[in-house]
Amino acid sequence: MNITVFGTGYVGLVAGACLAEVGHQVTCMDINPERIQQLERGENPIFEPGLSAILQQNRAAGRLRFTTHTAEAVASGDILFIAVGTPPDEDGTADLRYVLNVARSIGEHMQGYKLIVDKSTVPVGTAEKVTATVTEALRLRGVEHPFDVCSNPEFMKEGAAIEDFTRGARIIVGTENEQVKSLMRECYAPYNRNHDKLMFMSVRAAELTKYAANAMLATKISFMNEIACLAERLEVDIEDVRRGIGSDPRIGYHFIYPGCGYGGSCFPKDVKALEQTARQLGYEPALLGAVEAVNTRQKQTLFTKLSEQLGDLHGKTIAVWGLAFKPDTDDMREAPSRTLMEALWQAGARVQAFDPEAMSECRRLYGERDDLMLAGDRIQAVKGADALVICTEWKMFRSVDFNWLAGQLTDKLVVDGRNLYRPEALSNAGLRYVGVGRSNLA
Ligand code: UGA
Q1: Taking the model in full, what pTM does it have?
Q2: What confidence tens digit (pLDDT) does each residue in 259-268 have?
Q3: Looking at the structure, do residues 238 and 318 belong to the same domain, yes or no?
Q4: Is 440 a residue whose pLDDT tops 60?
Q5: 266 an active-site residue?
Q6: Which candidate in 150, 260, 266, 362 is catalytic?
Q7: Signal sequence span per UniProt (predicted)?
């Protein structure tokens, strides 16, 4: 099939590459010329395991092209995916400007039938706005062309995006139109071989499903972080509780890891956007705001724990392992590491930071500053530091020689924001250990 994907951000690029990989002819369009030039040169602008190889192979095979030309992009696809960003407005409402700009360009350039697919995370009712925008653009041209709009939300996680796209639990399509169903079935057929993962539902149900999924996962995390706060005060190890409740299949082990709060481009944004949707409907949501409030507080927990242990942090040097909001990405959007570092700087402390992938992102965000040393590796980060904080659970941080570490840290303190270590292993080496939901165990 001929497919065009508008937007070469995370979702658009992974979707475009994976659809080309199974034999579709894919054009990826972006209004950013630098990004397109970069992709045309064979460079991958985002860090995602496995993506570079797929981009390279499919570009070489002629199945994947990149363009900044809207007319060409619209003409070359029978199915047009909209995968542009929906950043939050000041009040958290999803900003649909980019989505509707694409819809308008489609209406301005289409010459025959098009199936328009909303892949961006968009509030309920957006497909109707896309339809109205395309219709208006066609009216201004004085032409009539048939088109359909359906919703096909994406559930990929950064760091596992290829796996999630190709082997996801479900493919949700919001449409009640039989022709659209069969086109979407054909588009996803290569990824839908062993059992039928396609779920058809109303457009609005598909749009709401996306937000509900992210809000549910964020709720699980905030719930667990709240129980972790109780566990700390009750002298209980939250890790025992996590295993205890996770073993109940009705709860499950996924997304109940306590930590220093969720970050990234999705959970924080989507929980706020859903809250705003509820308010716009005259319904005051009780749970969504609480999920967000618990997370905001949790992101401050690393700084609080450091202060509790060390008192005034002015003049202290804190090593930070992990800057990305989670492993296997270089993304620092809403990362707990940022809340920590900004609070440390405010308190007059210095930071020595290391992350296996996010160093250049950190440099881009904070530039050169006297109170930030970007370390070349994890060893350099702890040299001469008073304490160490773990913000991201990268695999490389899992095994540590704690005797060596104890020799490095002046205050012999490790704050483990991801509960990576066994508290006894650190106390045996003479280190003070503070985890999340288990700090009393040191
Ligand atoms: C999330 C969803 O998991 C995807 O299904 C969805 O498609 C995506 O948002 C999106 O809407 O685009 P992502 O933000 O990439 O994916 O990352 P997650 O792996 O879900 O992690 C989000 C945050 O939750 C991270 O900061 C992570 O550290 C935190 N987390 C996750 C916990 O604190 N505890 C857990 O048990 C799990």
Answers
A1: 0.95
A2: 999 999 999 9
A3: no
A4: no
A5: yes
A6: 266
A7: none
